[in-house]
């Protein structure tokens, strides 16, 4: 984990950033004293990411949103960057040209972004360029044996009945087997683990090719629990009851997720909660963190006892 220090004033650092990023991005607004929201377009996304990396920022996450029904009428991609040492965050908004589904890849600057690009490709139908996703990188969230490659379930113009009909037709007309490892050679064997696992581990299908105790090859298939949470918020909930869905996303983080939702709504509404509520929120968050920590320690002890 990175250790952030408060030695540098976040406001001062953000003001310095604004000067350094002039010509690369437009400053939209500053939500908090330690945050800055930037807009970038065209071919300036990659130079902006390179500049942020040189300034000590690392990539936290990347998400896509279908905003074709909103003011800008396009797809948008949002990048969240955090400084490695200073308590400063940068949110970068990249608007794709209308009717465009291609965007510049930042994989050469932040290699870890590949997992986000794969998910956005499967779920939203937006794809990076140079380097583009390979065939092997497609279908990691929507398995090719179950879903058509052009389903893109998180797009706003795809209703639930439309998605269900497309999935039904695909499974009836062109079922495809799950991709496996090459057949084992003499003296080797394969072991499949999952997708149902014990305890709190998320489902995943792991296939091992073994020679005795040596693992010769390994494949992984994820995405079994992708529920389309983003669309469920849009079609089934309002601002005042979305916290109920947020707390059901992951059972061991029910309070943390519901609180994150409430804080987002409070920011949109410009609401300041009273100090006692802030205190109770901190207490409940710490209790949930401690519960998970003790559970993980117990799980490690149990695993060690089996070896």
Could you explain how this protein is built, in words?
The two termini are 29 Å apart. The chain has helices at residues 10-20, 45-54, 114-124, 160-173, 229-236, 242-246, 254-269, 275-305; strands at 26-29, 35-40, 57-67, 74-83, 89-95, 102-104, 127-129, 189-193, 205-211, 214-221. Helix 3 links the parallel strand 6 (102-104) and strand 7 (127-129). It has a 5-stranded mixed β-sheet with strand order 1-2-5-4-3. A 3-stranded antiparallel β-sheet has the order 8-9-10, with no helix packed on it. The chain has a two-stranded parallel sheet with strand order 6-7. The protein has 8 helices and 10 strands. 17% of the residues are buried. The mean pLDDT is 87. By secondary structure, the protein is α+β, with helices and mostly antiparallel strands. Helix content is 35%, strand content 21%.
**Into which percent range does the helicity of residues fall?**
25-40%
Mean pLDDT: 87
Using the CA coordinates, give the radius of gyration.
Answer: 22 Å
Number of beta-strand segments: 10
Q: Give, in order, the helices and strands.
A: HEEHEEEEHEHEEEHHHH
Helix and strand topology:
Elements (H helix, E strand, L loop, with lengths): L9 H11 L5 E4 L5 E6 L4 H10 L2 E11 L6 E10 L5 E7 L6 E3 L9 H11 L2 E3 L30 H14 L15 E5 L11 E7 L2 E8 L7 H8 L5 H5 L7 H16 L5 H31 L2
Parallel strand pairs: 2-5, 6-7
Antiparallel strand pairs: 1-2, 3-4, 4-5, 8-9, 9-10
